[in-house]
């Protein structure tokens, strides 16, 4: 599930925690790679795929999607490395799994980068006869030479970790290595790791994440690691994690242990030697970084005792805390207005940098501390865009920024956070003809009177006669914001062909900070769905579309949203794309990593929360004889986060009740439902073929 909190990785999770409901005839589908479940999924693929792939439009859509996905003129996602180079991970038609590579900043700025391959995942997979999917690398500051490479089998969250020498371009013989698992690993120094993993079988929380932290020395077997912290098996969230705070020269200033209590509440401990010292921080807060002796914190709830508000960015003096641990004193860095939210925080050598949104439109502020106060300047970047901080240099104050909006091709910028006008490095070539298109922001009124914004992307001369094929996308959870982004695939496969594309900024997300998210938690969950229905009805009232021409799409938590829309308001929609969804919200806490999300949805074992879950859980609310449109359900066998059982059981229940539906289960792909670029293009072509059949035919 997409998350602002850190996701991560363990082997495939089967049944955990609470027992499955005894009256559920489809619990056998919860065995993620069980023979019966896979046989059923393959049969469903064989039935559904020809209905889409035999459509004469499918081949063209697939070719267009693949061309976009594998284009060599994409903007590389570079980041600053400690050795002075820029690194990125690149995929194209020749490198379907991808290569990790590096180039000098000068050659990159000159437009003709001299790339050096660090690691070729296609070649590695071929040599080892493995289905490796890149899951990133954690490198040791300050030079980033020694790295912990994360390799996933088929796209699972679970990874195998191997130590790699980025300068030599090879794995370190006898180096650090961890078998497949949902590990959390941080470098302390070149000979020491802080590792959180399943040390002994069963030492994971009820959601399948590790909770015991140990220091592992080079050359030691895992059995010899020294324990420094333990959470509890009943802890929620994503398992114990470490946060290593370093100065710009790579020296460790503090090691903080985060013990999640549920999805969003956590305790923080400063590791003093091998002794944890509790930090008196609010349970809903996040450590964002370290600069000039101060620890930067974002607040997701009020810190009333200190005069701080939900959404504030604050800091505290680390040395003062060490001297008087009971007297943690924060100071205010930034207090967003009601229309603003802090989306990203980064630090350079001497600057604190914040990506801020105001009414879902981005800007970047550079802060400098002087005379015990923070002062900011706004970087000169394109307006009405999403601006993301891709990388912040530890050696100076330079930044790599990504700028994107719905119709303007994405661009990449090099900026100095301390001075000067940002320099544009790259611009993506147009992927579709947007010359006759426009973007508008509208506001719908939800059931409780809350104003909910949404963006509409369409032809300039769109007829407001209710006849436009319209695709509405939303997510609505986990503080994840749906901000403007260049609609390359949707533009080519949908907008160019006369469709309208809509993105709704419903509650549950982070578009207006923690208050927007907190408003839709647990017992207040129906607000999220009411917001979505309000946007849907507003599109119809404005005569942009009508229910026969309105389709919806969402994945993961957004897949749950699609299921709720299907069961609660089927009369509003004629197409529903349900991607890697949650669906059984009464049993979700024992399926996959489900219990880690109790802080978002509530606990089925708590009567009041169970009643709310039962009121909207799509699986329990599917009924025969309803006006459900023909839905398209997608999942992945390798999704060890949400788990394919949700999608499988949804399809099985629809079949039981006699409904027509389409189902596709990618045997690889993890929670993204696509392990490589070819699979991603196939999934997109399937989706838009389905949408055309339902909304354009």
From TrEMBL:
**What Gene3D superfamilies does the annotation carry?**
alpha/beta hydrolase, Prolyl oligopeptidase, N-terminal domain
Gene Ontology CC annotation, any one: cytosol
* Ribonucleoprotein among keywords: no
Q: Which residues form the Peptidase S9A N-terminal domain?
A: 24-425
- Cited Pfam families: Peptidase_S9 (PF00326), Peptidase_S9_N (PF02897)
Q: Name one GO biological process term.
A: proteolysis
Peptidase S9 prolyl oligopeptidase catalytic domain residues are 494-693
Q: Which UniProt keywords apply?
A: Hydrolase, Protease, Serine protease, Signal
Entry superkingdom: Bacteria
List, in alphabetical order, the Gene Ontology terms for molecular function in this entry.
oligopeptidase activity; serine-type endopeptidase activity
Where is the secretion signal located? 1-19
What InterPro entries does the record point to? AB_hydrolase_fold, Pept_S9A_N, Peptidase_S9_cat, Peptidase_S9A, Prolyl_oligopep/macrocyclase
Tell me yes or no: is Protease among this UniProt entry's keywords: yes
- According to UniProt, the name of this protein is S9 family peptidase
């Amino acid at each position: 599930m997409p998350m602002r909190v850190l996701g991560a990785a363990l082997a495939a999770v089967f049944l955990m925690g609470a027992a499955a409901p005894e009256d559920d005839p489809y619990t056998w589908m919860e065995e993620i790679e069980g023979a019966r479940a896979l046989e059923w999924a393959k049969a469903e693929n064989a039935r559904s795929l020809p209905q889409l792939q035999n459509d004469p439009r499918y081949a063209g859509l697939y070719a267009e999607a693949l061309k976009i996905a594998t284009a060599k003129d994409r903007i590389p996602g570079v980041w600053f490395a400690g050795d002075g180079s820029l690194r990125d991970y690149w995929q194209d038609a020749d490198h379907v799994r991808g290569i990790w590579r590096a180039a000098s900043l000068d050659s990159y700025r000159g437009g003709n980068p001299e790339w050096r391959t660090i690691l070729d995942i296609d070649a590695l997979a071929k040599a080892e006869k493995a289905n490796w999917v890149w899951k990133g690398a954690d490198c040791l500051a300050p030079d980033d030479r020694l790295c912990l490479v994360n390799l996933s089998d088929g796209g699972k969250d679970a990874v195998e970790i191997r130590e790699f020498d980025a300068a030599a371009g090879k794995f370190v013989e006898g180096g650090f290595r961890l078998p497949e698992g949902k590990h959390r690993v941080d470098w302390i120094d070149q000979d020491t790791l802080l590792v959180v993993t399943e040390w002994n079988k069963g030492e994971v929380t009820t959601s399948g994440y590790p909770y015991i932290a140990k220091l592992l020395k080079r050359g030691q077997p895992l059995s010899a690691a020294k324990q420094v912290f333990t959470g509890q098996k009943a802890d929620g969230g994503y398992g114990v994690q470490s946060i290593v705070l370093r100065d710009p020269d790579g020296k460790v200033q503090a090691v903080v242990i985060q013990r999640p209590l549920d999805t969003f509440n956590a305790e923080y401990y400063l590791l003093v030697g091998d002794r944890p010292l509790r930090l008196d921080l609010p349970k809903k807060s996040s450590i964002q970084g370290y600069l000039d002796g101060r620890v930067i914190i974002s607040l997701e709830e009020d810190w009333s005792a200190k005069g701080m508000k939900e959404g504030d960015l604050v800091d505290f003096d680390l040395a003062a805390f060490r001297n008087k641990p009971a007297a943690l004193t924060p100071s205010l860095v930034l207090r967003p207005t009601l229309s603003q939210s802090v989306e990203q925080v980064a630090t350079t050598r001497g600057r604190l940098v914040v990506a801020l949104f105001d009414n879902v439109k981005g800007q970047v502020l550079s802060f400098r501390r002087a005379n015990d106060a923070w002062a900011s300047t706004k970087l000169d970047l394109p307006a009405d865009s999403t601006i993301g901080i891709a990388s912040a240099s530890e050696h100076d104050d330079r930044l790599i920024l990504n700028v994107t909006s719905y119709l303007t091709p994405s661009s990449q910028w090099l900026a100095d956070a301390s001075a000067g006008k940002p320099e544009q490095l790259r611009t993506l070539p147009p992927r579709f003809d947007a010359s006759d298109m426009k973007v508008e922001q509208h506001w719908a009124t939800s059931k409780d009177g809350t104003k909910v914004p949404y963006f509409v992307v369409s032809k300039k001369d769109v007829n407001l006669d209710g006849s436009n094929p319209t695709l509405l996308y939303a997510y609505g959870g986990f503080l994840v914001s749906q901000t403007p982004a260049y609609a390359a695939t949707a533009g080519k496969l949908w907008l160019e062909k006369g469709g309208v594309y809509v993105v709704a900024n419903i509650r549950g997300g982070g578009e207006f900070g923690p208050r927007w998210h907190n408003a839709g938690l647990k017992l207040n969950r129906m607000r999220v769905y009411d917001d979505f229905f309000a946007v849907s009805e507003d599109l119809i009232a404005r005569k942009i579309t009508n229910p026969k021409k309105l389709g919806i799409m969402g994945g993961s938590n957004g897949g749950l949203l699609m299921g709720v829309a299907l069961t609660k308001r089927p009369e509003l929609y004629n197409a529903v794309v349900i991607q890697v969804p949650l669906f059984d919200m009464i049993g979700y806490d024992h399926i996959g990593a489900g219990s880690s999300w109790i802080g978002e949805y509530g606990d089925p074992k708590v009567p009041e929360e169970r009643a709310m879950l039962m009121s909207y859980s799509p699986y329990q609310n599917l009924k025969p004889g309803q006006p459900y449109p023909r839905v398209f359900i997608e999942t992945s066998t390798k999704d060890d986060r949400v788990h394919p059982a949700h999608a499988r059981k949804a399809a099985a229940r629809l079949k039981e009740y006699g409904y027509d539906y389409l189902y596709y289960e990618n045997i690889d792909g993890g929670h993204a439902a696509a392990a490589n670029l070819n699979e991603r293009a196939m999934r997109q072509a399937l989706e838009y073929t389905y949408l055309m059949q339902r909304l354009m035919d």
